[in-house]
Amino acid sequence: MKRREPLTNTQLLMTIAIGIFIGMYALAMAFLGGGxxxxxxxxxxxxxxxxxxxxGCALTIVMIGGGINISVGGVVxxxxxxxxxxxxxxxxxxxxxxxxxxxxxxxxxGLAFGIGQGFLISYMEIQPFIVTLAGMFLARGLTTMLSxxxxxVTHEGFKELVxxxxxxxxxxxxxxxxxxxxxxxxxxxxxALVMLILTWYLLKHVKLGRDIYALGGNxxxxxxxxxxxxxxxxxxxxxxxxxxxxxGFVYLLHMPAGKADTANAxxxxxxxxxIIGGTLLTGGVGNVFGTFFGVLILATIKKxxxxxxxxxxxxxxxASGAMLGFFILLQSIVLSTxxxxxxxxxxxxxxxxx
Amino acid sequence: xxxxxxxxxxxxxxxxxxxxxxxxxxxFNLIRDPGFFSISLSNTGVLTGNLVSVIDSAxxxxxxxxxxxxxxxxxxxxDISVGAVGAIAGSIFVCTLQAMGRITIxxxxxxxxxxxxxxxxxxxxxxxxxxxxxxxxxxxxxxxxSCGRSIAYWFSGSATPQLSSPIIVAMGITIPGIPVPTPIxxxxxxxxxxSLVFRFTNLRLYTQSVGINQGAARLNGINPVMIxxxxxxxxxxxxxxxxxxxxxxxxxxAHQTLLVEIEMDAILAVAIGGNSLGGGRFRVVGSVIGAxxxxxxxxxxxxxxxxxxNVKAYKAIVIILIVLAGSPVIRNRAxxxxxxxRIGKETKAAAKGVN
Lengths: 354, 355
Description:
The structure holds two protein chains of two kinds.
Chain A: H1 9-31, H2 39-48, H3 50-64, H4 72-89, H5 95-123, H6 128-146, E1 151-152, H7 156-163, E2 165-174, E3 180-186, H8 187-205, H9 207-217, H10 219-224, H11 229-254, E4 257-258, H12 266-276, H13 288-307, H14 313-353
Helix pairs in contact in A: 1-13, 3-8, 3-9, 3-11, 3-12, 3-13, 4-5, 4-6, 4-11, 5-6, 5-11, 8-9, 8-11, 9-11, 12-13, 13-14
Chain B: H1 2-32, E1 40-41, E2 47-48, H2 50-57, H3 59-75, H4 82-100, H5 105-131, H6 137-156, H7 166-172, H8 182-200, H9 203-212, H10 214-219, H11 224-250, H12 262-272, H13 284-303, H14 311-325, H15 328-354
Antiparallel strand pairs in B: 1-2
Helix pairs in contact in B: 1-13, 2-13, 3-8, 3-9, 3-11, 3-12, 3-13, 4-5, 4-6, 4-11, 5-6, 5-11, 7-11, 9-11, 12-13, 13-14
């Protein structure tokens, strides 16, 4: 008798996250109406959180490998500041060149952090939490060394790039004066979505990605299987650094100004999003699409609170905290009941055999 | 006798790197500016000087690091909500004092008891998630990390009431007539209390065994859930005391800035103290030394006229150096080198003996 393959833990947790997101969005549409009925609202959530989607991918990769990276927010802050200063200092005539150099600068900063941290964590065997905490301190300190004051980008070419938006006419809405206003998607959001799919492909269909899963699941067995554990772990941090550098560039595309506290505490948001999407901090379990929905859930809660009568920053914090608590408890209960059922089934099988 | 000896030797091995780091920092300061360590008596009868301000300002960090060590050892993870819970405890303290009307010794004691109770409650929430629901500590405490300060705001409201009373000044700064800042006494008191607990109970043994192998500890009749909860309760007491010190220092509650980012520093202190962040063996003394190293570093950088905002970058580099020195890879390399040196010496000596 052929039985249907049961859902894995990852798929189950991700399905729950997607279901809750759809339910929440539907409720918001029904009760708050207004903005939520327009497609633009959804695209705005994507536009505002494109850098968080990238950070979520960065954290998901590392967390699947059994580590953690809390320097991502700091790296975004440093990248944004460095790029803003570079753009203001460069000449405007050849804007394509200066923008590509800016992109390279952003990726370079991210890669440098990734390589340094990856080396310390995997080859020097220092605890990832401490290394990336120091990385966060270093990035924040360097940001304020570059400039304590906010830096606004004055580069004309870059400003043009910021204004570029993908227009999707059939998802638009008709304004009061009868004009059709198409839905708009920013470049940053497109980059984030492309990287999301690339990360998914890397984790699911490239040897390195499978190695990272194996290493997070059980390092000892991964070693026995002949996986180069140290190199895979190192590369997971390098990719994470690369993605956070890119997130910095995307942040600058959304908000062209550098500040000392850019993306403050966004690493915790990214961790929360990964957890809501079903990634376990213990490693070996996770999916970037779950993280994507985690980001959407957190962003939608904030949007709902802004539109509801409880518009206060501390209500936002409370609501996201409560949501996080709910998901964490749900995961724990789901996983433990599945574990128990598995043990029971194994017992039964053993009894029948015996 | 033998067992005792090995245990002692192991302990010093763990404390070696933090002690060397502290020594290097002190030496660096001595060479840079011998006046760094001058201590004088100000005209109000209080000891002043860089060293005093290091020890004084590290008080909250040292107290929280003590509790954090226990949680780290038993759960193999860290509590990142201590700053937020400290802010809640501080606002409960202020609320109690305000509800009582006048600030007297008794209202302060009641306030402290009350805020310790509330902090224990919040830490028990974390502890339940960690021990009963088996959630990673960092994830479980992320909940309070993200909404704890909002809860503090909920208690105290947007007002930042001033607590102007000689009792609060005595608690946060100095008691008139005693030249040593009061927070230092709090650290000493907590240290004595914890060492008494370790001396007369099996808490250290039980905590270590739960941290090293929870299943084995359970089979030996130790209740891991209870031990983990207990470590969170102790952390709650530490956090509440740190919160009260923080409030009395400035005489008001600022829920956004009270004990801000102390969770990261406390975890660093635990790691610098040579404790494994994965649980198991621990030395509370190491964490306290770690806390003083962190503050010493900060004050040294201030004395070198580094801008406060830039301190973090230098701090990160020194932290990496300290942790690198304690990393297993470097330690093994050093041990191999040392061994080779020793063997070489022995063979030389043997050759001499033959000759």
